[in-house]
Each structure stands twice: as structure tokens, then as C-alpha cells.
Amino acid sequence: MKIKALKGFKDIVPGEVELWQYLERVARDVFDRFHFREIRLPILEETELFARSIGEATDIVEKEMYTFVDKKITMRPEATASLLRAYIEHGLYVQKPVQKLFTIGPMFRHERPQKGRLRQFHQMDIEVLGSENARVDTELMAMGAMLLNELGLQVSLELNSLGCPECRPGYRTALLSYIEERHDSLCSDCKRRSTTNPLRVLDCKVPSCRKQILDAPSILDHLCGQCEDHFDKVQAGLQQLGVEYRLNKFMVRGLDYYCRTTFEFITTDLGAQAAVAAGGRYDGLIETLGGPSNSPGIGFAIGMERLVLLLQQQETSYVEADQVDLYIAGIGKQGSQVGFGLAHEMRAGKYSVAMDHEGRSLKSQMKQANKTGARFVLIIGDAELESGKGILRNMLSKEDQQEIDLSASAIVECIPEKSPIADSIMSGRLKEKNSTD
Fold it and tell me: Which of 202, 208, 372, 383 is deepest in the core (most CB within 10 A)?
């Protein structure tokens, strides 16, 4: 009996993982330009962290979390709460008043697996902590738009405001009144949500419920003066930066901690799973989790599985990680032995090198070199050992070849420019550091 991966959990295998690496590489480059710093977080947290931050009445806490009940610990269903816990625990707010952080990794929710949504899924989570300035909201959305644009993805930005604790009660009363008039026509989930989290009724995907809320009151008509001013400044900033958007009065968040600005990047290329990134402001959450008072924050998460699906659909061109600079074809025991040493020297010089260790024929090794996309092949057989010169073949031209000394320095002289393959996972900053060490 074969053992398979659990339902909703997926292996990312060679041939696909390179696209994930490409996605992360582009994202890290964009985040670096906006001066965001990476933070790495544990997968397990105290269950209380998510109950307090996400809200005990949410679907995530009630139905979807992977919790070890006896230990009172939970596999993180989202990253914001964990990031804020670390921000508070390590006193990052003391080190720097405004922190710009991102993290990349797996999250876990027990829900029905579907296209672009798994039980173990991956997110990029980007947060700005310590500023309530509307420009921060604008800059964060502009960065998201820039990343998605540089990935070549066609998305649209949708925007709303959820108000604040001062203006939301009035809207809640108006919305509850509207919902009660249509209570019998709503699905069972919306009937339940109407008493626990009525804003979620606006987010229901059931067609019959969508019809019922078409004329629902808009929270934008109930904003207090400060929230209205903040939202006006956010929109003005987006217009100044040339970031296109549209208002969506039905956009809410499934998590209790959001306030004011909320936004989503939407695609029409994934069917019902339209959102590829979503987030918003949560100005009171840090204090709720035991952090300092008056510590505003805003952030968003990008669903990596959905971005990968979009990149696969458009057949995005990216560098294959198994393409190598040099393939060494060692023929016979001695030729293979000499090639083994040369391969190690070239790798130490930061060239990507592949070779055969199974004693295959030259013909078989040349086929393998083609499969790896090798730029050059160095052939070392008995004749080459006797003359002290190997045959270096340019695999791009398929015809150009020359005899060279069997030394790493001689090979480097004939391959003057490294392929980007060997450094494909490094950031530009790390490459620069290595070159000066």
C-alpha cells in the first residue's frame, strides 16, 4: 500500500519549485526597494494568540484551526498575529518607531481543498507597524501593485473602509436592520453570522445571498470625520502614484481586528477564487495582544499558490534551476576521476557543474548534458588525459569546440561570463557582499 500526502497538503517538486523560487526572488527584490526587513516565525503558537486576535466567533477559530487541544497550541492559520506577537515580545517598537516587516511561509486551515486553496498553503505577509499615516496605506498598496505588475499579472485593486470603533456601531445597527428584513432568505451561515459578525454577511458567496445584499447600506456613508478624512487621503495618494482602484462597499474582512482601510487585489483568471492578495489596517490589535497603546498597523497577505497558478497559466518565462554552466563528461575510470576534482574546483568558484558518476558512455552523457541545459561540456577521455587537454564544447552553438588545459583556470578563461543560474536564489545584495569578501 502506497502512502500518499494528506488531503489538502501538496508536495512542490522539482520542475515546479523553480517557479516558487522565481516568485520569491521577485518579491524580495521589490520588498527590498521599499526597505522591508524579513522576520521568520514559528509555525506553532499558543491557541489564545489566535482566539484573541482573529476572534473566537470567526470561522477560522471555530472550525478551521489545527489545534493540539491538550497542549493548547495551534498551527498558525495566518501570519499577522504571530508577527505582532514577535514584535511585542522582542520590543521591536523600542528599536525603531516604525517597523516594516515581511515573512514568507506555510499556514494551516482545515477547510475544503479547492483550486488555489489548500489546507497547508503559503503566504507572503507584509506589515507596517507604528504609523497611522494614510501615506503608509497608499505606499503598501502601491508596493503590492508594483510586485504583481512586475510578475506580469493582470489584477485590479478594490478598496473600502471599515471605519473604526467609534463609527462602526452606527453602521452595524443599520446593517442589522437591513439583514433582519431579509433574514428568512439568507443561507444558514449568514443567519448565524448575522448575530455574531454581521459584516460577514456582505462577503457571502452564495448567489441568493448576494442578491439580498445588493442594496445593503454602505459603511462609507457612516464614517466618522477622522475615518472619512483618512480614507480621502488614501484615495488621493493612490491617484498621485497612478495606482488604479475601484471602491467596493461589500468588501469586509473575515478577521475581527481590521479597521479603516481594507483592500484586495483581484483577478478574473482563477474562477471563484478571485483574490490573490488582501489586507487592511488594524490599529487596535497590538494593544489587544499586550503591546504598547496607540500602536497602529496595516498589512496584507499574498496567496502564493494562486500566484503560481497565474504564472503557470501565462507560461511565465523563468530560469530553470537545473540548467548548469558546465557538464563534465568523464570517460573511463581515470577520466571520471580527473573530472571529479575539476567539478569541485569549479563549484568552489561559484559555477554550477554537473557530471555523471555511473560510468555511462559519452553518448549517454551528452544526452544528459542536453537535459540539464548545460552551456558547455568538457570531455575528458583517454586521449585527452594523454595530451593533457580536454575538449570544451559550446552547447549553445552546437558546433564550436576547442582543446583546453585540464585546469579550472583554463576552463574559466573559456567561460568568461557566468550564467545567472548559479546565483539564481541569491538576492543582489548577497551577491554584492560575496564579491567583496
Answer: 202
